[in-house]
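Obj.: predict assembly geometry.
Materials: sequence records (below).
Method: joint structure prediction, all chains together.
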Amino acid sequence: MKSEERRPDRPPRYFTSLIAMLIAPHLREEILGNLQERYVRRVHNQGVSKARRRYWLESLAYLRPAFIKRQKNEYSSTTGQLAPIYSHDMIRNYLKIALRNLRRQKVSTSINIIGLAIGLATCILIMLYVQDELSYDRNNEKADRIVRVGLKLQLNGKDVGGSMLGINAARDLQQEFPEVVKATRFRGQGSEFVSYGTTSFKEDKLLVADSSFFAVFTIPFLKGDPGRALTEPNTVILTEETARKYFGNQDPVGKVLSFGSEKTPYRITGIVRNVPPNSHFQYNMLVSLAGDDQNPSDAGWLYRMNYHTYLLLPEKYDYKQLESKISRLAEKQIGGEIQQFLKLTPKQFREKGDDFGVFLEPLTDIHLYSRTETGSGGNIMYVYILTAIAAFMLLIACVNFMNLSTATAVRRSREVGVRKVLGSVKGQLRQQFLIESLLLATVALVVGLVLVTLALPFFNELTGKALSVNLLAKPVIAAGLVVGTVLVGLLAGSYPAFYLSSFKPVSVLKGRIMATRGSFNLRSGLVVFQFFVTIAMIIATVTADRQLRYMQSQKVGFDREQVLVIQNTNMLRNNEAVFRDQIIQSPHVIMGSISGQVPVGNSVMDNTTVMSKENPDQGVMSRFYFVDPEYIPTLGMRMIQGRNFSKKFQTDASAVVLNETAVKALGWQQNPIGKELIGHTDDNGVKTYYRVIGVVKDFHFESLRQKIGPLVMFLGGNSGNILVKTRTDKLPQLLASMKQQWESFAPAAPFSYSFLDDRFEQVYISEQKTEQVLTLFSSLTIFIACLGLFGLTTYTAEQRTKEIGVRKVLGASVTSVLALLSRDFLKPILIALILASPVAWWGINQWLREFAYKVTVDWSIFALAGLVTVGIALLTVSFQSIKAALMNPVKSLRSE
Amino acid sequence: MRRSDLGEFEEVVLLAVAALSPNAYTVAIAEELERETGNIVTAGAVHAAMQRLEQKSYLRSIWGEATAERGGRRKRLYAVTALGGRILEETSAVRNRFWDRISPAIRLEWN
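Observations (raw structure tokens):
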């Protein structure tokens, strides 16, 4: 190839063909001849390379309007040359014909437009969503230099690691590694009542942070000095929104807020912009960690691990380099602490099958990739799945278009024939059909944009985001839309364009085009594809729905109906018990219990190791619950051995109730009652022990995603909530009277409550959203697919009108005609069902792996999905089929 | 008299066609002009000029023979029309008249 191109008598070929394409056909021969001749002569006189260089100049000199302009009546078909790339007149003509055609075929036009519009709208919505997901934390100027330190920790076969470490980790890392430019840490601070004068709010997005926070993250200050922010104890930075909430338009800097029931004063030293919603941590107040960070010697990396640690690295630094160094330090630090707490050397610890270590996560990966973060909740899987759904929806819409245009080809074939006879060449016909589909795509885009505007509020609610149509005005996205639409138009129009333009005029004009079976096979293939996607989505939806129902209906081991949770009861301070005693006086209240622990979701995260007296080397990781004697009866939990806590026994202060799992884990299957757990050791080396007095039946104290773990219940002064078991249908009245009683104790504090079963459902909100999103998209896919099916039947029925007429005249029944027409469409759907089932089976099993308690995937899901699809498809097909079958044969046969 | 629409380059090209006739075609003229002026002259520029001249009816053209060095393509041979000839002569006459009026003293000053 190369040697041929270099042949001295032949100028550079790629350039020649470009010139040949651009210049007008009637000048082509002469110009190419001139170029060649000059080139050959130059090769002869000046050598090949100079000639080649000159050739460029020579060619460029020919690119002037005089040579590019076509002659008015220049039809390439007559000269046997390339078709012109652009002809203004012809394009006008194509547009005119396209408009006429679209107007004439109203059904197929509207099907195409609606289908494409829905496809495009879905795509746009998903694009906005995905764009938002990918933008997390990127507003930080040093986003690519920030990493978070994560903890890998496996205890008794259970992962208890996460993104939190003890208070010392940040300091140690900063001291130990010179490559750490800056280390910062912060912790979430539950919720707190904050008041200024008489205004008081419950703030639940407090972050307690280092002053280095601002050196790592990009936080724009509106007021105050970023350099000095959070350097002093008892200072606080507010976000714009929070500042307005407390102070309106006043300047809050220098004012003092009081925190909690102790009314601790905090001085406001600055105002920052609101946290963008696409940040993986959110706050409305930043509280100074200064003064609180004495780094007590007993605090390490594991002890009280509730600090998030972030490191700022030098530019162009690969964090992986640091990761291995940090791992060595962590081995020493965490290993030491494990030895201290568990009396196990790291080697013994690992031999037990457990493990520990640290890892670094780039800031920009946290939202989508982090498995440790519970708050932000992005998932790259969902991004992939949604992108795939968007692509599929669009593909299905394109398939519809291709299908319908192929089906209508018979109608258009005459036009194609006539055009060809009159001298059109393939290229021109292709152009015509592509322009037609581009026109359709453009209209669909406009309709799609309208749909997006309408659907956005709903979509936002579904995804919990605040996306706006304004985003579409971004140049990148707008350009993407235009390019996307053109691509869709070209893709959707490509098959019809090539198929229709290949018709042979002779056979078309003789009306022989119907005989081709090839097109039918391709169409069936496309229908199979559409329903493959549709059925897979229905299966996924049905499974998600079942899993959700399963989780919500699962026996959790306690009563959640009629249980009211009165929150923040520690606001009542010493009057908590009095208030409780007062409200249970009501005949509608059965029982009330004071406890901070609500067995829903992740209300407690403390994992602590407990050891039995007889086997002190064998620690069991468990959760602790601090309850009162009323707790178990109020929630209707069952004791299966021994007894509940009671006020009658003074000794119950050092008694525990275990759950079944804990009993098993401690190896006390036989008779756990009376066995003892090791408590703490006091300064004099005196150990206290906790006696097991009862075993409570296992109940789900976390979500059903996790397996029930060991649980130890103590009798203890943990307050914060009052759980009230009620018996009434007059809840509003009951609540009103409770509120009144509350206010007599704490007029300033707001009375807030929730229902246990509501909170239970809240835990499954992400599954609920998944299910809703799936339902939405699978209904849309099935709608678009059926739209296509509807169009196809319309044309088949129309095409076979005569056949049906003949059959009816010869005595065919309506049913047999119906069967005849439906059969063609059922076959591809059944094939799709068979193909989609294994794929969907694999997919849903992947998803279900996240749950410890899950539904089984059995054949009924596939049967149900199949039935639904076939049912809807039949319904779609039958409308046109019945019309065709009922048609009077006299009418259909007379038409010629 | 539409004398004004003959550009300088056009004039040279027209003259070259007349000089090379009956063997005047784009490449030959371009080469001739390069030789005479010492500047690079592209075939495209010459061709464009000849097209304009043809439009103005100063030139006519016919297909010539195909040669191997043109890749088997035909060349287009140009000839000056009667109108073209008259225009050339007129241009030349105008120039000559001016030349004649330049006093020898002035011309001596140039040299």
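Conclusions so far: Chain B has five helices and two strands.
To do: check interface contacts against the pulldown list.
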